[in-house]
Design a protein that fits this description.
4-stranded antiparallel β-sheet; 10 helices; ATP binding; 8-stranded mixed β-sheet; Rossmann fold; binds adenosine-5'-triphosphate; alpha/beta
């Protein structure tokens, strides 16, 4: 059985101006010990999807479909069970570590907190575990006594990873875990994540704008556009031989060192992603698509097979399939 199964998941935010369909009909599975990368430009719904997995969305979000964690639907779970799932079974590492760390509490106390809250360790054992976790993420034990502002961005991100690992979860969701870091530190934190998930058999969902980063760390890739998965398959295949024109553009978008904005603008693509409240008819990508056909303005293509273990939502992917 898969560790995680998303079945037709949708998320709609209700705001004063109307409804924002941020995630639309996403179905994905993640096996135990596997790593799935979720790619897409800003606004494509990646973070909304990640937050939905642990029911961390604001109250104005309505979630549909099923999110099965070990066969148990997260969306209908009682709150008590949901609280037990967070940290202990699945935990999230956020972008830039600014959301997760309390500026006025020592690092060691913050790493120990999920262990103590979940009753998984007494204070003495928790202190030992903190030392072990700091070591695992490459920080000296004395850092337990530091405050977040005494650490560099990369060190703070390591602390977030230590917190996520504290309760030995089966799944870690990493939302842009390295975006705010400079390139050298980024590479170190990425190889740390890669190492930890491989060594400890943890499943990983990693979210990024950067397809090359995801292809390096993950076995499978899902590319999102305007709230939908438009391509899914083995990482190397999707990265090197993308079927969907949007994935191709993302794969060709090499980030400029030290310029986070360049990471968000896929090369060769004009225009911006659509406003989810005003999605174009047909394929949502057609106004920006370099190879759009006339029918793309009216035909909203579902994901269909595009090779072994692969799916893509594009008329061109279908054409290939029919020929072969
Ligand atoms: N609380 C909210 N209320 C209303 N709309 C929201 C809310 N949060 C996100 N959205 C909208 O939902 C869509 C998806 O946003 P989301 O943050 O999930 O995308 P993303 O791919 O993670 O982008 P980024 O990489 O910038 O974080 C966007 O159009 C965004 O404006």
């Amino acid at each position: 059985m898969s560790l995680l199964e998303l079945d037709d998941v949708s998320v709609t935010y209700r705001i004063a101006a109307g409804e924002v369909p941020a995630v639309r009909g996403v179905s994905l599975t993640l096996d135990s010990g596997a790593a799935l990368g979720v790619a897409g430009e800003s606004g494509s719904g990646k973070s909304t999807l990640a937050m939905a997995l642990l029911r961390l969305l604001p109250k104005d979000a309505r979630v549909g479909g099923r999110i099965l964690l070990d066969g148990d639907d997260v969306l209908t779970m009682k709150w008590g069970r949901m609280r037990a799932v967070r940290w202990a079974e699945a935990s999230i590492v956020f972008q830039g570590a600014q959301h997760g760390l309390n500026p006025v509490r020592k690092i060691g106390d913050q790493i120990a907190e999920p262990l103590l809250v979940h009753g998984l360790a007494k204070p003495d054992a928790a202190r030992k575990r903190v030392t072990e976790l700091l070591e695992q993420v490459g920080l000296p034990a004395w850092r337990a006594r530091s405050y977040p502002h005494e650490l560099s961005g990369g060190q703070r991100q390591r602390v977030m990873i230590a917190m996520a690992l504290a309760c030995s979860p089966r799944l870690i969701i990493a939302d842009e875990p390295t975006t705010a870091l400079d390139v050298m530190v980024q590479a170190q934190v990425l190889s740390l994540i890669k190492e930890l998930v491989a060594e400890q058999g943890i499943s990983l969902i990693m979210i990024s704008h950067d397809l090359s980063v995801l292809a390096d760390v993950c076995d499978q890739l899902a590319v999102m556009y305007a709230g939908r998965v438009v391509e899914h398959g083995p990482s190397r295949e999707v990265f090197h031989h993308a079927e969907h024109p949007y994935s191709k553009a993302l794969a060709a978008a090499f980030p400029t060192v030290g310029d986070p904005v360049s990471r968000m603008a896929p090369k060769g693509l004009g225009g911006d992603p659509p406003d989810p409240m005003q999605l174009p008819g047909g394929c949502s990508f057609h106004p920006r698509c370099p190879v759009a056909l006339e029918e793309c303005a009216t035909l909203d293509v579902e994901l269909w097979p595009a090779g072994p273990g692969r799916t893509a939502a594009c008329v061109h992917a279908r054409a290939d399939e029919e020929v072969s």
